[in-house]
Amino acid sequence: MSRIPGFTASPGRLGLRVHMNGVRGLSVSARVGTTGVKQDQDVTLASFRQKLEKEALDAYIIPTSDPHQSEYPPNCFARREFISGFTGSAGTAVITSSSACLWTDGRYFLQAADELPESWKLQKAGLPDTPKISDWLKDNLKDGQKVGIDPFVHTVSEVAELESTLKTKGIELVKITKNLVDDIWDEQPSVPTTPVCTNDTPQSPDIKWAGVSAKDKLTQVFADVAAKGANSLILSKLDDIAWILNTRGSDIECNPVTLAYLIVEKDSATLYIDQDKVSSSDVIDHLNQAGVTTKDYKEIISGVNSLLDGIMFDPATTSIAVADAARKFATIETASPVDLKKAKKNEKEIQGMREAHLRDAAALTKFFSWMDIATRKGENISEYTAGAELENFRAMEEGFVEPSFPTIAGEGPNGAIIHYRADKDTARDIKAGSLLLLDSGGQYDCGTTDVTRVYHFGGDAHQPTDFQKEAYTRVLKGHIALDTAVFPEGTPGHVLDAYARRYLWEAGLNYLHGTGHGVGAALNVHEGPQSISPRFTNPTPLSAGMVCSNEPGYYEDNSFGIRIENLLAVTPKESNEFNGVKYMGFERLTYVPIQIKMMKLELLTDEEIEWINDYHSEVWEKVSGRVGDEQIAQNWLFDNTQPIERPAASA
Is the pLDDT of residue 1 over 50? Predict the structure, then answer.
């Protein structure tokens, strides 16, 4: 593509730079070492069934998760992806001698239908007619048959639910320590060996951004453990461990974590990790100052066996393998105290998130202005190339480490695939007249970003359809409604979900994903325990310091997708206190223009127009100074933050 005058040259624009470990728009073949074609998936399935028969099993469950319940497992643990060919981040495979099923949620229905071979059946989780996995197994197996699982990748809670349902039919759940998928995976990637980072590297936050030392965090967490009558706490979640130790790693793409377990005791902690990852003097000193010793990763079970009564672990995040070892002693099985502490960001962490979003806004401004000029000049830019170029723009920003998740750049019908991932060979072109859904984010030394914008290219000469504008505007109205919500402290996220859906519901429209997820501070882009979704089973209140996404959407299958996403920090609001209850609201963290061209202005109220104008005024004020002397970017930002008015009523 031609270089656009007015931009500083970068390797990406003079010769496309694509990081294979950064841009996740790759086929399963590139990620897990297989050919990725559906015919080979059938061969793999046949080979696995032979293994089932050899082990005298009638079914086997293969979840996405690794031993740490990671949403995005490292490639060596991408077993569900290897066996099924489905590359989405959420799903569970179940294989019997005659059936192969994959359960996934509404974000992935279209993607799974496209990627799964014909020999697999898609089970659309969450729909009324779709059975739970345990119920499906009960209905499809006979009394006395056996279901196998790897106990290291299933949590205590999952196993309890499975056993409770299966035993009503006399079906046995069998724990097999050796994962059966590994036995047929000839080119399984090696376990990652990247070193842990500490304060003096750009990949790890120092106290400037972490706010609290690792030693103090360990002390605070153990106080909560002791208050429950426990003597130790087992942590398996990788982001929990990274947060409490103020360390970062790169074992998993887009997630700055390292494979490890941590056992916290009074005045000490033991980190179970590949010893080569913590061999540098700065890492050793950092851990010593926090009172942390290290042992080999594979010694976790023997480490648990050496503990005394009073072992605490979270049954929702701890594997049944680790729990079985702990249950030889008295245990306290309850939610980890780390989750809420990590979710409620301190002021330093919030400052870091603000800074990360301003850096990110500058990168997105440069990207969109480049795309806008290129498409107006008649250039075609593939979805795959757009994702790679966006990473290049982010890489020019201070403290950028990597994307915070695989970029979703969906043109036209691909925008309707909620977690679409472009492939270099099949990516659609973005050109004048294209409607692009771009969901992306960055990991910076100071914070994590996640932003979605929908942009229609080609200037005034090309216009979206009336229905696209209506859908976009209804999504925007819901976005504004949630952004401006005020609610009593103690309110869980599911109470607010309808704010974002109301205007879609009024037109008989909806979307099949949650409205908001938690986000880590220079950590995982998806973080709990809070969420904003219709699932009323999550009672976690939205508390001060929590960061959530605000991302309503609408998806017209095989046509287009709409999603508008900002990140919000929960903050106290000045208001009356009714019966002593304080009220909460949100602080916006994301500052990227929302395209005016896509708005159907007659659907907006005066208050909503005022919100849009105020938001764009803030965007210009906060971001214009960040794009430097690149005049094209400045011009684009100026044009896209101009105030709007309601169209004059016709006579």
Answer: no
Cα–Cα distance list, 73 to 78, 88, 89 (Å): 6, 11, 9
Task: With beta carbons less than 8 A apart as the criterion, state whether 101 and 93 touch.
Answer: yes
Q: Are strands 146-149 and 59-63 parallel, antiparallel or unpaired?
A: parallel
The half-sphere exposure of 60 on its side-chain side, counting CA atoms within 13 A, is: 25
**Phi and psi dihedrals of 442, rounded to 5?**
-130, 150
Distances (CA, A) of 144 to 381, 517, 619: 57, 41, 64
Per-residue CA distances from 566 to 433, 448, 483, 608 (Å): 25, 12, 9, 16
Among 357, 289, 367, smallest CA distance to 4 is for 367
Q: Would you say 410 and 426 are in contact if contact means Cβ atoms under 8 Å apart?
A: no
Reference 475, options 439, 505, 519, 449; nearest CA is: 505
Give the DSSP per-residue string, 533-593.
SS-TT---B--TT-EEEE--EEEETTTEEEE-BEEEEEEEEEEEEETTEEEEEEEE----P
Burial classification of residue 116, based on how many CB atoms lie within 10 Å of its CB (0-12 exposed, 13-18 middle, 19 or more buried): buried
- CB count, 10 Å around CB of 141? 19
CB–CB of 292/245 below 8 Å?
Answer: yes
What is the rounded radius of gyration, in angstroms, for the C-alpha atoms of the chain?
Answer: 25
Instruction: Name residue 264's beta-bridge partners.
Output: 233, 269
Dihedrals φ, ψ of 524, to 5°? -65, 140
Q: How far apart are CA 547 and CA 357, in angstroms?
A: 13
DSSP letters for 98-132: S-EEEEE-GGGHHHHHHHS-TTSEEEETTSTTPPP
Rounded CA-CA distance 552/513 in Å is 8
The answer for 648, left when phi > 0, alpha when psi is -120 to 50, beta otherwise, is: beta
- Closest to 235 (Cα-Cα) out of 277, 264, 256, 206: 264
On whether the CB atoms of residues 457 and 580 are closer than 8 A, the answer is no
Sheet hosting strand 527-532, strand order edge to edge: 487-488, 581-588, 566-578, 547-550, 516-518, 527-532
The secondary element (H helix, E strand) that includes residue 467 is helix 466-483
CA 585 to CA 575: how far, in whole Å?
11
Q: Provide the pLDDT for residue 649.
A: 67
- 3-class secondary structure, 485: coil
Mean pLDDT of 511-528: 96
| Among the listed residues 361, 352, 354, the one whose alpha carbon sits nearest the alpha carbon of residue 446 | 352
Total-model pTM: 0.89
Which structure tokens are listed for 169?
Answer: 């039919």
Q: How many CB atoms lie within 10 A of CB 40?
A: 15
Interaxial angle between packed helices 214-227 and 238-245, expressed in degrees from 0 to 180 and rounded to the nearest 10: 120
> What would the mean pLDDT of 266-292 be, rounded to a whole number?
94
Looking at residues 182-207, what average pLDDT do you find? 76
Task: Report the pLDDT averaged over residues 567-594.
Answer: 92
Give 379's contacts (C-beta < 8 A, 6+ positions apart): 1, 2, 431
Provide mean pLDDT across the span 472-485. 98
Residues 587, 605: contact at Cβ < 8 Å? no
> Is the pLDDT score of 240 beyond 60?
yes
Cβ proximity of 542 and 496 under 8 Å? yes
How far is residue 8's CA from residue 602's CA, in Å, rounded to a whole number? 40
Q: Which of 214, 487, 488 is nearest to 341 (CA)?
A: 214
What is the distance, to the nearest Å, from the Cα of residue 74 to the centroid of all Cα atoms in its chain? Answer: 14
* Whether 79 contacts 179, CB under 8 Å: yes
Q: Which two tokens stand for residue 536?
A: 């009323």
